[in-house]
């Protein structure tokens, strides 16, 4: 991380953690099992609800929210309730995603539903979803104008609906043979990009920006998210194992329908047959990667990533971000996008 | 139903349905599967998402909200977003409850998770939860003051958390041998009473009542809910089959831990042994009911119901409700509480 960004992270992370702990009653107020399960999920407690310190998530989303607020001329401390809200929302969605995907582990730890059962885990996610809304409501306690808080609640709720639409599409795609590139972009907009968009949007709303600036920040966040996801898709096939930590072509081994694959399936009949008939052994992986290269899937995805990346930077510039936070925001964008591919 | 109440229901029900249909995009705006699942759950569509008219829920909660608003001197039409919000919230909770309880049917129809699978149903519930918050947010569009909308959002979120606490307790109690009467009352407060409390509270908030009146309405709703639940518990053991539609002593056959049973288990060692050892055959049911009568469980529960019922009426009177809505509110209370027991 570059200097300015590191400094912002160091300043903001403890404040975000404190705000979330107050909302999730991890400040000693609650010894309730239901809250204990949330504390476990957040990396603040072990299975016996005893305090632990575990590396839990990178908190990119709340930091994006606070940096946007500051770059837009606001006081980032005032946006802390919004930052806590998006991170709690993100964590709620992970609890339910893990159940829906039957994932046994998350960040190297056993998932909630594996320990306490699916029933209690669904309900724990619901509690956390409700608490995300309550986190946002605390904007009023920081002196944010009531009309802005109401607007923030509306956009937060609309974002939640988009998240569930993305998740619905993702689960539905697994059962379908053909998914178009446009449908895929719509799905990852809901699953990934919309929440990053909302982080920037909330920061701008709290800073009191005019509508045009708020929309520019929201578009910046969305295209940043889309670029990030498409780059992730490219790295999942052509990434350097040493850099990504994943084995090369891992998304081919799992037959995951990412952007390059979907593009390829739309172009190449041989590839379609391969995906329908073959088991995913080493020969399969080699053949698939070859055909993807030949049909231009890598070039297509790289061009897409580049378009989104440029659009993100363009919309960020259009907001005329100011001060050290602006620099940190540019550095965060660069860090998320300039990965090796 | 008595005359005034019938008239209010006839006037309010179509308005509630219209408001909910706009929020849940059942007004022709969406042909999305995710929304189709919600329309099925609400009784507006069949499994193929074709429009149907099915008797779906009694809508007691939203009517309570609107009647409170009117009785407190407000315009009930202004409270429609709040009424829609509580009914959508209630319906969301049913989707997740049905998964958690593995219930195959609800209101005589196959449950959502049975048709579309547990994964999509969890996510559909989440969408509906988000939409309940968005329903509430529409108060601002009806001219309700922004500060009141923010306050409504806070109390709505806190109510959601209490609901999940009630559900957590309910699921946990099933695995425990002993549950105290106080723990049980706390659980049914979360599962049942808190939402009725919130219906009345929201109505009063929209009407612009002072804090004391809002608290009186909230307490009225809570104790109405507690009285209703305890009466339900009594009817589950001693109810007249012809009146309740359930077979007599149905809660004994299923070994359900309701208030009279928990009281009895706390008093009577023989009853404890019966519950631990015996299968629930006819002789078991007869023995249990005898011992419950002997140890005073029926009297205890009847006294509790009476206390909550009086408290509900007392707090309603303390608000000085006015006009035809006040009469309808009293009639609704009487209808819910004066059941045969």
Can you walk me through this structure?
The structure is a homodimer of 341-residue chains. Chain A folds into two domains: 13-30 and 61-209, Orthogonal Bundle (Farnesyl Diphosphate Synthase); 234-313 and 327-341, no CATH class. In chain A, 72% of the residues lie in helices and 1% in strands. The first copy, chain A, is built from 16 helices and two strands. The first copy, chain A, has helices at 3-23, 33-42, 60-71, 80-100, 112-116, 118-137, 146-173, 181-206, 211-238, 241-244, 250-253, 259-267, 269-277, 282-294, 297-318, 323-337, and strands at 105-106, 109-110. In chain A, strands 1-2 form a two-stranded antiparallel ribbon. In chain A, strand 1 (105-106) and strand 2 form a beta hairpin. Chain A is globular and about 60 Å long.
Keywords:
homodimer, 341 residues, mainly alpha, Farnesyl Diphosphate Synthase, 2 domains, two-stranded antiparallel ribbon, 16 helices, 2 strands, 72% helix, globular
User: What is the succession of H and E elements of chain A?
Assistant: HHHHEEHHHHHHHHHHHH
CATH architecture identity of the largest domain in chain A: Orthogonal Bundle
For this structure, the CATH topology of the largest domain in chain A is Farnesyl Diphosphate Synthase
The domain tally of chain A reads 2
The fraction of residues in strands of chain A falls at under 5%
Pair of chains with the largest interface and how many residues each contributes: A-B, 41 and 41 residues
Distance between the termini of chain A: 19 Å
Tally of contiguous helical segments of chain A: 16
User: Based on DSSP secondary structure assignment, what is the total number of beta strands of chain A?
Assistant: 2
- What topology, given as strand order, has the largest sheet of chain A? 1-2
CATH homologous superfamily designation of the largest domain in chain A: Farnesyl Diphosphate Synthase
CATH class of the largest domain in chain A: Mainly Alpha
